[in-house]
Design goal:
Length: 195
């Protein structure tokens, strides 16, 4: 086995003409630049923390058809979680976390990190939480939790959202119609005049 040098024995090639192997002290460590067949140790541009257990470094397997058709599998050294992504026409696609059995619980919906403006699922329901990245009536900061309901799979241009801002105890709703509309605040009984 060669370290950080091309392996030209084509018996073991998946595609392309070389296979690279690097360790923590050699080779490419930026996942965005690891576009040749091989195994790497990455320290940057791997899966982001928004994928919950995503690591800041780990093992990276790369299979390349060309510089514009690349598949990557990243693995966290600590818990073994796997993440995947690819290049499509020269652009890296977002990392995706591979689900494991523990991720599926019929009694619980797991939220994902998102600003409310970015949480529209297209279709279906999506539970989300925002830690300092946005809330109702403040798209750039603040804390909130919520659920977004998309429309049917054949028309993803409509839906609605319910959000609870953390800190003001108010609940907000709005609809999606080819873009988010203005927030509406749900009234408390104490908000309604009695006379």
């Amino acid at each position: 086995m060669y370290v950080n040098v091309p392996w030209t024995d084509t018996t073991y090639n998946f595609s392309g003409t070389t296979f690279y192997s690097g360790n923590s002290n050699t080779a490419e460590h930026d996942a965005n630049n690891a576009i040749k067949n091989g195994m790497y140790y990455y320290t940057s541009n791997g899966p982001s923390i928004s994928l919950e257990t995503a690591p800041s470094d780990g093992a990276l397997y790369v299979q390349s058809y060309s510089d514009y058709r690349v598949a990557q599998i990243a693995q966290d050294y600590k818990d073994g979680r796997l993440f995947v992504r690819g290049i499509n026409n020269g652009a890296w696609q977002p990392w995706k976390k591979i689900a494991i059995t523990e991720d599926f619980r019929p009694d619980k919906l797991f939220g994902y990190a998102s600003n409310p403006d970015d949480s529209h699922p297209g279709d279906g329901a999506r539970v989300f939480y925002s830690w300092g990245t946005g809330q109702a009536n403040n798209a750039t900061s603040g804390y909130s939790t919520g659920i977004t309901i998309g429309s049917n799979p054949f028309n993803t241009n409509s839906g609605f959202q319910i959000v609870q801002n953390i800190g003001d105890d108010r609940t907000y709703t709005r609809r999606y119609d080819v873009g988010w509309k203005s927030w509406k605040t749900l009234a408390w009984t104490s908000d309604i005049p009695t006379s």
